[in-house]
Design a protein that fits this description.
single chain, about 400 residues, alpha/beta, 5-stranded mixed beta sheet, 14 helices
């Protein structure tokens, strides 16, 4: 037997494993690195975050990603080179984190890398006859494995596509294993660049669970801030809080076929971008309103899409527990407006479930890797968009 396969076999048979989960989202604020201790698999999965940090991206590195991000026409040579470059940068950030935390590579069993999404193209968006759903994440797993000396699982979304899904959201798989609770209807709401949630029913029936994107979270606000205020994001909602909601613009922003599509569904900055905003402003004759009012309206737009989606799943008498995660939960205006729109819901964060909200997505990929290595596919029945599969390609470290 190949010694690397022997090593893989021995690690999967351990009672508990140290797995590093990685996430670099569409906001591109850095690489989330979560060192997790994971015991068991399936419904017996136990996860503890041992260490967490966000490895900072340089402005130059972020600019290189943006040059190929969410664009139909790009420099193909640059895409090719960035596949390797991103992996090398991620590998170096992992090595730095391990040194900082006092861990040797030999102590780590696996790395679970999401990679960097550069384009997401479900059929609902590309509308091209004869083509399937598509998505592309780069940051090659072999390079990370060689850079760190640790077996790496990566490219999780392709199996989801191959099994009939749209490649997103993948949160449903980990959310079900970690956060389900009998007798409590839970919404695991992640407000990143794009907002998505997983519904976990109180009856714990896997076939009733689903995860869906609902629309923009931070992406439009972040893009607008970067273009007009030269800031990466609206810290503490400083700009949006100083503006006023423009109802005409909000109505135009909400006028999109995506919001009428059934769950589950996926989207991305390929749809919700500054061109989308410009079209909405022209449609509503709001090109000359203040930039602060645009930001306030974009914040309301995110809130409306999230609250409308959640309301469509429950009646007014349902007791819903909403657990928030992602960068958007730190936006005080967005959080306040959301709570007022969903006044009957009980709002918490995943901190209340012993998972750092900022680390949640990185942790979920560690759980996905653990299931691929040590578990089995969860039976979600025949629910469309939630295939019962294990995901991730394995890259050996030698």
């Amino acid at each position: 037997m190949n010694l690397q396969i022997q090593k893989l076999y021995e690690k999967t048979n351990k009672a508990e494993r140290l797995i590093i989960g990685l996430m670099s989202g569409t906001s591109m604020d850095g690489l989330d690195i979560a060192l997790c201790n994971i015991k068991g698999s399936g419904a017996e999965t136990e996860v503890k975050i041992l260490k967490f940090k966000t490895g900072d991206y340089t402005d130059d590195f972020r600019a290189k990603i943006k040059a190929i991000f969410s664009k139909k026409e790009v420099d193909l040579q640059l895409v090719c080179l960035m596949n390797e470059h991103i992996a090398n940068v991620h590998g170096e950030l992992i090595n730095q984190a391990l040194k900082e935390w006092g861990y040797e590579k030999e102590q780590i069993d696996f790395i679970a890398s999401h990679g960097q999404t550069i384009f997401h193209a479900p059929k609902s968006l590309h509308k091209l006859d004869g083509y399937p759903n598509g998505t592309l994440q780069i940051g090659d797993g072999d390079h990370i494995a060689m850079k760190t000396g640790i077996i790496t699982l990566s490219d999780f979304r392709q199996k989801h596509l191959a099994a009939g899904g749209e490649g997103a959201p993948l949160a449903v798989y980990g959310d079900y294993l970690i956060f389900s609770k009998a007798g409590e209807n839970r919404i695991m709401l992640n407000i990143g660049g794009i907002s998505n949630f997983t519904y976990l029913p109180a009856n714990l029936k896997a076939e009733e669970i689903f995860s869906t994107d609902v629309g923009p979270g931070n992406t439009l606000m972040d893009q607008f801030m970067q273009q007009h205020f030269n800031r990466f994001y609206d810290k503490n909602a400083e700009i949006s809080s100083s503006g006023k909601l423009n109802d005409a613009l909000l109505s135009a922003l909400l006028d999109c076929d995506f919001f009428n599509d059934s769950f589950p569904k996926t989207t991305g900055p390929e749809l919700f971008n500054l061109e989308y905003l410009i079209r909405a402003q022209k449609k509503s004759s709001t090109e000359n309103i203040s930039k602060e009012d645009v930001m306030a309206t974009l914040c309301h737009f995110s809130v409306e899409t999230i609250s409308n989606a959640i309301k469509s799943c429950f009646d007014e008498t349902s007791e819903i527990h909403i657990f928030m995660s992602g960068g958007g939960m730190h936006n005080p205006l967005l959080a306040s407006l959301l709570k007022s729109k969903l006044s009957s819901a009980i709002f918490k964060t995943t901190d209340d479930l012993n998972i750092n909200p900022d680390a949640k997505e990185a942790v979920l990929f560690a759980v996905l890797a653990n299931e691929t290595l040590c578990g089995k596919p969860i039976n979600f029945g025949k629910r469309q968009g939630v295939p019962s599969v294990c995901m991730g390609k394995i890259s050996l470290s030698e």
